Please model this.
Amino acid sequence: MSKAQFNRIPVFLMVAMLALAGCNSMNIGGSSGSSGGSSGGPPPQISGVALPEGYSLDADRTIILGEGDRWIGRLSYSVSSSADSMFDFIRSQMSNYGWKEVAVVRAETSQLTYLSGDADRVASILITRSTLYGSKVDMTVSPSSGSGTISSGRAPAARR
Model:
């Protein structure tokens, strides 16, 4: 290895380390918490749903399409609150964002289902107890089959 090539290695390593450090500080929640999650505010592209203070976003399980209050996808997060507290929080707050309760099941794994005010989206929320403390929440928001934006899964009738 020549001296000129040897001198380029530290510069290359420094650039690579800075690039990796920049990637490490980015996350969906817009803050740099130690768990890679949000420190209480919704991810920048999410609004229109009840999210508790201090939740920790699970970026590996979260996938969001769209933005604002028109997003669809899965939002996964954990909180230090009990599953029962989360159930009560979501049930009391979703109507403040224009969601209408369709069905609720309070159990070991609780499920809440909501329909958006204009009936074009459905929110299905699963709440499970965490192993040590707190709870985990999976909120899936998808187009409503009644909105005409997704297929019913049936083939169209044949024309004669």
In short: Helices lie at 3-25, 83-93. Confidence is low (pLDDT under 50) at residues 11-40, 148-156.
